[in-house]
Specification:
Layout (H helix, E strand, L loop, with lengths): L2 E3 L6 E7 L23 E5 L10 H10 L4 E4 L22 H16 L11 E7 H12 L1 H6 E9 L16 H13 L1 H13 L6 H12 L3 H12 L4 H7 L8 E6 L11 H7 L3 E6 L10 H14 L28
Parallel strand pairs: 3-4, 3-5, 5-6, 6-7, 7-8
Antiparallel strand pairs: 1-2, 2-4
Protein name: AB hydrolase-1 domain-containing protein
Pfam families: Abhydrolase_1
InterPro entries: AB_hydrolase_1, AB_hydrolase_fold
């Protein structure tokens, strides 16, 4: 799998690039290989804190092999196989949200050639989780070419516009909540992961084996990265940036999948703020879903949702409080369609 050398500081950054199989045949494909597969948008999956791209493994396999999408999944710097900082130590003191976005733009350009994309390019759809949602928006803001190549966004448990209590988000977590997490990580990183991750995913949502996999993924993160990343996303409210991305002549289609028990980003104070800034946003609410929603149905129903995004179907507003969008109320497959 490929690496890039970051233009920011020379850090080596890893990303996974999966192409649908032609030989040997893929297991349980939805359809045989087709030249039109190349016309599908590439899916670019960005990860939640404090995980690497491996958080998407349960989705990547069916998306690539069953539904035949090319998928790119970067490891954010400091996570997975990516370095936190590079040999240019003069840049090490300033690694922030803008750096993450710049790294992502560079990966998009390297893997997809967005800076030289022709009108016939299939472009890409960004699929982000939590922090990864803001990272995608900042990349689109930083690069006109990336914005022009983007065919839509899907946000799973977004933390936008900021995972913090503010005047517009009075029920968000206070700063003390994050300070306690950072203090706990300094004292006993593994101990916090064992007690804190169930809060993110929800009690009894994951098997012990799955939970240990996520613990290991987070444990492998760079110790400086896991702390500074929190500081980075807490200092940026992306409301104004989202408003700046709204263009009636080129609407940005966004689909948000959010749990109704997400205390980090409550529906009315997170996704609804996104929709007010970017009106072409559709919200699907998962009943009993938490911030770390890891429903296997995402891997099953995702392709139908992605197809709708690809064709830029105009959807009716989601019925507030619904656990899913029915096929009668919008031209989007319900989340349990398969």
């Amino acid at each position: 799998m490929p690496y890039i050398t970051s233009n920011h500081d020379g850090a080596r950054l890893f990303y996974r690039d999966y192409v649908p199989a032609s030989s040997p045949a893929a297991f349980a494909p939805q359809s045989p290989p087709d030249p039109d597969d190349r016309k599908k948008p590439v899916l670019v999956l960005t990860s939640a804190w404090p995980f690497s791209s491996k958080m998407w493994d349960h989705v990547l396999v069916p998306l690539v092999e069953t539904y035949r999408f090319r998928c790119i999944a970067p490891d954010r710097r400091g996570y997975g196989k990516s370095e936190w900082s590079g040999p240019d130590t003069s840049k090490a003191e300033r690694i922030d949200y803008d750096t993450f976005a710049s790294d992502l733009v560079q990966i998009l350009d390297t893997a997809l050639g967005v800076s030289s994309s022709s009108s016939g390019s299939p472009g890409f759809i960004g699929v982000g989780s939590s922090l990864g949602c803001g990272e995608l928006l900042m990349a689109l803001s930083a690069s006109t070419e990336a914005r022009n190549s983007c065919k839509g966004l899907i946000f799973v448990a977004t933390s936008l516009p900021i995972p913090l209590r503010t005047a517009e988000k009075p029920n968000g977590p206070p700063r003390e909540f994050w300070d306690n997490i950072l203090s706990s990580l300094r004292r006993d990183k593994l101990g916090w992961l064992r007690t804190g991750l169930p809060f993110i995913f929800g009690p009894d949502k994951l098997s012990d084996t799955e939970m240990k996999r996520y613990e290991h993924m987070a444990e492998e993160s760079d110790p400086i990265a896991i702390e500074r990343t929190v500081q980075a996303f807490l200092e940026r409210d992306l409301s104004d940036l989202m408003k700046s991305l709204h263009d009636p002549e080129k609407p940005l289609s966004i689909l948000i999948l959010q749990g109704d028990k997400d205390s980090v980003n409550p529906i009315d104070e997170g996704p609804e703020l996104v929709r007010r800034c970017l009106p072409d946003t559709e919200i699907v609410v998962y009943k009993d879903g938490y911030h770390g929603e890891r429903d296997p149905k995402l891997g099953q129903s995702g392709p139908k949702l992605l197809t709708q995004m690809r064709t830029q179907v105009s959807c009716k507003p989601t019925e507030r409080g619904a656990s899913k969008i029915s096929s009668d109320s919008a031209k989007v497959a319900p989340v349990d369609a398969l």
